[in-house]
């Protein structure tokens, strides 16, 4: 394993130290291990708290700031945060108007956030949970833990965060977050396995002409192994899965996210975005907004995910609202 | 079981989880995200530190506090599950410095109920439950049949081991491994394996 | 080779198509192969044109927009653009106030830009060239082609671009660009070799415990091969080289860039930034501003570069000025 | 050399560069950025297309236009260098559909001067110059000694080959390979190698 680290056990803490040093506009609590807006709590504002395993940066710590999250709780690498952390962050940013937990649908995240929400309720804080489960590679059935939360998390945090920033009420903020999630579908491919600092070797072997289709963001293998195909074909397959799971009609408007998993260069992401734009145009779907880059990553995994979210005008307006975070910034 | 035995058990778990962390992580790499060994090592190291620094007067307290520590330190799916299990075990025990094997049967069942309630897994879902449930059943039957703790614990460990090994052929329906669908079959479940380690540790520390 | 591409020969053109689709605020000329601000030429404004091989994205195309570049000319992967391209871009964005070429110091880039500048002069356009050569891993002597241009390019483009945006004259814009370059020093490490689409295999073999120290951004091996060391040690060695080449005194202010080469995750870049901040603080050097991310990349190479630029108050002011490009955006 | 021979030469270069592109790229991967083969293939493919679509009446024009095409299509260091060289060769030739070997000597020298002026490399810097210069010298001496074109071209190709091979031991002082310092020694220079291919192509198309 070759990584720019010191001791594998210190990676998360040391990266948080770097984040704190780099961003004076954030407040990093190193004891409780959370990242918050320096100006939190903001009285009367609904606060958004998210979190999850580390290794997905800029998600979530990089999305803390005006117009998006009030706090983020990074767990160990690929390990959901613990209830203590989430509770501490929740209390730290609660401005009296309630707190929205944005939770990616993984067993660990769900359970730890649920425990924290119960503890917060005990302390008189109202928590609404928005569960993100956009990954259509996973069947949503009683035979699985349900769909995973992946790329759509970014859009949920951005759009719900904007509504909270402009004074939306707890129920409204949670509601639009859920709407964004419900309107989103994602699909991912991996070209390589991920190497976590703790494991020190790739999670699986992948021959030089094969890829994993339908992977998540935790280095787990996908639904199936395939031969590598040209980018255009992979995009068409992914969009078929996405548009079958969450139908988008001709004339509908969408936000598209072409998201690198960490090890894939931008030149490939743009090439893929070009293919996505071509396919959607042929179907009469209008891409209102798009993001191309590394937002919801899986350490050094070479791969990408495509997310399509069918949007309303209100969602686009909130997407366009100013945001000022390390990982996403405009209008400010 | 007295406080000394309870703490000895948890220390033995900490040691065996530390020794087998790489193995657990390897199992979790195959069908999960490769952190199960590190997670449990972090958690039980913290439990051992707790035991070092605390004088307990009640067996139940040992497990309640250990469970709370796991919840606070592990994260992931296994943290809340094992943490809630140990808390439930501790809470179900009568207060005091020693409990009977029969008390333990009731308490371990309460632990299993907590895991089931929190995680929603049923037998065959390829989870902790697939080792925990047979272990509790074997333990209960042995005690009902008049066995002493060492014998009951050995039977529980055997049953947990059988249960863990039997997860190999299962297709996961809960937790991360369920994302793999059919591809999860052919691999032993990391959580069932660590449950086996936990019961094996009890058998080891009680062995005459 | 596993990449999200179709035909290796079409990578640059197809990525440009994706860039054009993703960014309506840019104008991509697919025939002449350049990227320009959609509102160019802007009459009376000094125009900045840069370019270089593709594979360094977001450099340069991702830095086109208000407050930064007026146009960028992407060559083939790791191959400098040709004079025709540069001339076409230069003519397209010239607003009558002259054009600054920001050129990274590589033989090919220098020659192709020089030819283009001569052709532009023939057509009555005044061109000033700012040569970027910040990589202190290369000795600057008659025995080499001189130092390479790497991370400092971003800062030159940002700061000179801001001055041009606010009305700076040709000589002033070029002068501050040269000052930024003169005040900058960079050093890079690679953990893996790069695979270009054309070559289809890594440029060199690197054992699992070795790294290349002093690499550039074109996948070439570095000055020397070393054993992998903890991040803290690597940072100290890099900063020794940087601060020896361009001394920075206690009390001086700097801008720091911790730049990923493409395959290194953000969590490691932040960890490294934390180490940089610690070392500079111990030396009494104040980090006025910093950037942590993938800005000047080398396709999928795992690695990073550290750039330190000793800054004046004016440089910081211009760094802070609004910028609105795909790769760098604030204040707008 | 008439227009037909000049175009045959350039076509032969295009073929040989295409055939050896991987080899050139491999050399460039070792001490450069791994694009030399692709660069020249792209350039000479364009030159071949130009020749297909144009009727020339002057040998010099063939080289001037080919050089311009290389400048427009190749990029990198080799594009301007080879482009300027061919342009200089073409410009130094007398107008008309055929030129003498002596004309070619003068023109090839002008090409060498263009490369030196543009790139500033001197012999021993591990560049194109290290193959080009001995080739031009051998060609000039052969012609001065009364050799016909085939013989002179064969000698130039041999000298270019020797020059290219001799770059192996050199430490680069120009171009990308100079960044490697001492580590550039032990590898054959890609540009010197492609120069050898160019002169070998002339030898091949003139061979009786
Ligand atoms: N719903 C559940 N009920 C019981 N056990 C579960 C459940 N979900 C996951 N597990 C167990 O948790 C184990 C994984 O734990 P761990 O790797 O620590 O957490 P994570 O999956 O969050 O990375 C699995 O092997 C499985 O046995
Ligand atoms: N200053 C120079 N003078 C002569 N030849 C040079 C010079 N710099 C580089 N070269 C030649 O160019 C070759 C590399 O060409 P190429 O790979 O196409 O361009 P780049 O180095 O820009 O990628 C080198 O092998 C060397 O022979
Ligand atoms: Mg995990
Ligand atoms: Mg796990
Ligand atoms: Mg090149
Ligand atoms: Mg090259």
UniProtKB/TrEMBL annotation, chains A, C:
Coiled-coil boundaries: none
Cytoplasm keyword on record: no
PROSITE patterns: DHAK (PS51481)
Gene3D superfamilies the record matches: Dihydroxyacetone kinase, domain 1, Dihydroxyacetone kinase, domain 2
Listed Pfam families: Dak1 (PF02733)
Keyword ATP-binding in record: no
GO CC annotation, single: cytosol
Protein name, entry field: phosphoenolpyruvate--glycerone phosphotransferase
Automatic annotation (TrEMBL), chains B, D:
SUPFAM superfamilies reported for this sequence: DhaL-like (SSF101473)
Residues of the DhaL domain: 4-204
Oxidoreductase is among the record's keywords: no
PROSITE patterns: DHAL
Pfam families recorded: Dak2 (PF02734)
GO molecular function: glycerone kinase activity
Gene3D superfamilies: 1.25.40.340
Keyword field: Kinase, Transferase
SMART domains given in the database record: Dak2
Keyword field contains Kinase: yes
GO cellular component term of the entry, any: cytosol
Single GO BP term: glycerol catabolic process
Protein name: Dihydroxyacetone kinase-like protein
């Amino acid at each position: 394993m070759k990584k720019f680290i010191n001791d594998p056990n210190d990676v998360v803490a040391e990266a948080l130290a770097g984040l704190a040093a780099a961003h004076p506009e954030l407040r990093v609590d190193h004891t409780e291990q959370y990242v918050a807006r320096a100006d939190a709590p903001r009285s009367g504002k609904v606060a958004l708290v998210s979190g999850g395993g580390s290794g997905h940066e800029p998600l979530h710590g990089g999305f803390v700031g005006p117009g998006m999250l009030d706090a983020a709780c990074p767990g160990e690498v690929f390990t959901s945060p613990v209830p203590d952390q989430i509770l501490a962050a929740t209390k730290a940013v609660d401005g009296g108007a309630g707190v929205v937990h944005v939770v990616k649908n993984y067993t660990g995240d769900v359970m730890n956030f649920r425990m924290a929400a119960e503890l917060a309720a005990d302390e008189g804080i109202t928590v609404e949970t928005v569960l993100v489960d956009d990954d259509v590679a996973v069947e949503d059935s009683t035979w699985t833990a349900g769909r995973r939360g992946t790329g759509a998390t970014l859009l949920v945090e951005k759009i719900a965060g904007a509504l909270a920033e402009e004074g939306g009420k707890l129920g409204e903020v949670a509601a639009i977050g859920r709407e964004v999630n419900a309107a989103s579908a994602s699909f991912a491919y991996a070209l390589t396995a991920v190497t976590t600092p703790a494991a020190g070797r790739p999670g699986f072997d992948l021959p030089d002409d094969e890829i994993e289709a339908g992977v998540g963001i935790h280095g787990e293998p996908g639904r199936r192994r395939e031969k590598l195909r040209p980018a255009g074909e992979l995009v068409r397959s992914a969009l078929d899965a996405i548009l079958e799971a969450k139908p988008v009609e001709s004339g509908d408007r969408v936000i598209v996210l072409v998201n690198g998993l960490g090890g894939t260069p931008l030149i490939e992401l743009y090439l893929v975005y070009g293919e996505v734009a071509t396919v959607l145009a042929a179907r009469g779907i209008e891409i209102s907004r798009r993001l191309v880059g590394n937002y919801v990553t899986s350490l050094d995994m070479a791969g990408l995910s495509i997310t399509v979210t069918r949007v309303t005008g209100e969602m686009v307006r909130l997407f366009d609202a100013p945001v000022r975070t390390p990982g996403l910034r405009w209008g400010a | 079981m007295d406080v000394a035995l309870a703490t000895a058990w948890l220390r033995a778990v900490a040691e065996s989880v530390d020794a087998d962390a790489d193995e657990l992580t390897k199992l979790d790499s195959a069908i999960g995200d490769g952190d199960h060994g590190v997670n449990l090592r972090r958690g039980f190291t913290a439990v051992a530190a707790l035991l070092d620094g605390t004088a307990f007067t009640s067996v139940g307290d040992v497990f309640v506090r250990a469970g709370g520590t796991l919840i606070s330190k592990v994260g992931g799916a296994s943290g809340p599950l094992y943490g809630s299990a140990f808390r439930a075990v501790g809470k179900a025990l009568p207060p005091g410095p020693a409990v009977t094997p029969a008390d333990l049967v009731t308490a371990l069942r309460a632990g299993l109920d907590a895991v089931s309630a929190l995680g929603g897994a049923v037998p065959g879902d390829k989870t902790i439950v697939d080792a925990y449930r047979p272990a509790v059943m074997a333990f209960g039957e042995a005690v009902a049949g008049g066995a002493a703790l060492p014998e009951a614990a050995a039977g529980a460990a055997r049953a947990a081991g059988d249960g863990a090994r039997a997860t190999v052929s299962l297709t996961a329906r809960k937790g991360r491994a369920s994302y793999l669908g059919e591809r999860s079959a052919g691999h032993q479940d990391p959580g069932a394996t660590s449950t086996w380690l936990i019961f094996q540790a009890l058998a080891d520390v009680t062995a005459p």
